[in-house]
Design a protein that fits this description.
Blueprint lengths: L1 H11 L10 H24 L1 E4 L2 E9 L7 E10 L5 E8 L2 E11 L5 E5 L4 E3 L4 E4 L4 E8 L8 E8 L3 E10 L10
Parallel strand pairs: 2-11
Antiparallel strand pairs: 1-2, 2-3, 3-8, 3-9, 4-7, 4-10, 5-6, 5-9, 10-11
Length: about 180
Amino acid sequence: MSTFFSAAFARSFRPQPSFLASFEERLGVAVLAFALLVASASSLMASEARVGDIVVEKGWSRAAPGGAKVAGGFVVIRNEGSADDRLVAVETGIAERGEIHEMSVDDNGVMTMRPLADGLAIPAGETVTLKPGSFHLMFMGLGAQPEEGESFAVRLIFEKAGAVEAMFEVTGMGGGKMHGD
């Protein structure tokens, strides 16, 4: 009887084959994990750009209807430094020119939009959000229509920090909520 228990004991504690028993299976899982890591890291990098103490993130624009000559751009800008800076210019390959604008409503309820001739102050240690109905970018003389699901490069030029290129994602035309919130 002791041999019966010995055999049963040996069978119950025998190493079981792993679901990743072969080298090829383990290699495949490792390659897949690495690919997912690279994909997620590149999407994070695409959503943030940095120059000096300035961080630019969550750039977006709405899709433009066919024939439109202008489009808006929206972005979050953080100044992580101890000195104020200023966004002084904007450029993009999809338009003849870019401008920095402010939209406001006066006491009579009249909405006005105007370019900021001196640019937009980015105070030290603060975040400035360019969004619909407030500060925003205008892309004038569109050569290409931004289409939902695409992205395009925008070059933001700061007085002190210099220039940085950021990618702007294109959302649907009717999107009224700030992208990335």
